[in-house]
Write a structure and sequence with these properties.
By secondary structure, the protein is α+β, with helices and mostly antiparallel strands. The chain folds into 3 domains: about 90 residues; about 90 residues, Cytochrome c-like domain (Cytochrome Bc1 Complex, Chain D, domain 2, Orthogonal Bundle), CATH 1.10.760; about 45 residues, SH3 type barrels (Roll). About 40% of the residues lie in helices and about 10% in strands. It has 12 helices and 7 strands. Strands 6-5-4-3-7 form a 5-stranded antiparallel β-sheet. It has a two-stranded antiparallel sheet with strand order 1-2. β5 and β6 form a beta hairpin. It starts with a helix and ends in a 9-residue tail after the last helix.
Length: about 280
């Protein structure tokens, strides 16, 4: 609770303390999230050095913090290039966050191909993916659940488990392959008002993309995939509402063929399955 108090007070000298706490398993999660509030030039190297030893939830916190500032986002892409951070660890929200930096957009596009194609090209890609999936043996739902946990669960809930940033999936038309492919491959085709992403740049240079859950004259509450952040209006330098989904295109295409089949099999399942 002492750390929470210090984070709430935004003590300007806290960044070195947070870096030292990265080696304490009991406080590592709050420290990773707390570093996002500080423009600390040494934070990226400290997080990336520890990255291989982090748990799944800690890796998610580290990726979101690294993606929150241009310099650390560039360092994260360097780590991806050098294979120090596996490509499959990047969630949809982190990829979208990285693409918000104009200077990094080409690098992100080279990795994930997120440039929006024409409607005709997109329809062709969806049809090609449909034919690929239909001609192959069905995937394994249990393996698909592991992929969902890694790539989707931060934002979406299925069978009572998952995040609340994106739409609840349990009641969706998941048995329809076309429905799944359109939503996975063209997530920005229809974006519900409640799920429209907003990007905020703070006066300290931090960039945050999430869903505005509440706001008044003094504060804005933003839900991201790993945290709920309350920002003072006075600390907001710029704010932009996006016309595209927080979920980037290319997520399904960047999975291996077997992983695609497994994920689709899990999404189409009628009940929860054990996870491999």
């Amino acid at each position: 609770r002492a750390l929470e108090t210090l984070l709430g007070a935004r003590d300007p000298g806290l960044a070195p303390v947070l870096r030292s706490l990265l080696r304490d398993p009991a406080l590592r999660g709050p420290a990773l999230r707390g570093l996002a509030a500080y423009d600390d030039p040494d934070a990226a190297a400290a997080m990336l050095q520890l990255y291989p030893a982090l748990s799944l939830s800690e890796k998610r916190d580290a990726l979101n913090t690294l993606a929150g500032r241009k310099a650390s986002a560039a360092a994260l892409l360097d780590a991806l290039r050098d294979k120090a951070v596996p490509k499959q660890d990047f969630t949809a929200a982190v990829i979208r966050q990285l693409s918000d930096y104009a200077e990094l957009r080409d690098r992100v596009g080279q990795e994930w191909g997120i440039v929006r194609p024409t409607p005709e090209a997109r329809a062709k890609d969806i049809d090609q993916m449909r034919r690929e999936l239909l001609k192959a043996p069905p995937g394994d739902p249990a393996s698909g659940r592991a992929i969902f946990s890694r790539a989707c669960m931060q934002c979406h809930t299925l069978y009572g488990v998952g995040g609340k940033v994106g739409p609840e999936l349990t009641g969706g038309n998941r048995s329809d392959l076309d429905y799944l492919l359109v939503n996975l491959m063209d997530p920005s085709a229809v974006v519900g008002r409640d799920y429209t992403a907003t990007t905020i740049r703070t006066t300290s240079g931090r960039v945050i993309t999430g869903i505005v859950k509440q706001e008044d004259r003094n504060t804005v509450t933003l839900a991201t995939e790993n945290d709920t952040i309350v920002l003072a209006v006075a600390d907001i330098d710029a704010r932009k509402q996006s016309d595209v989904s927080m979920m980037p295109e290319g997520l399904l295409q960047n999975l291996r063929p077997q992983e695609r089949r497994d994920l689709i099999a899990y999404l189409k399942s009628r009940e929860q399955v054990p996870m491999k």
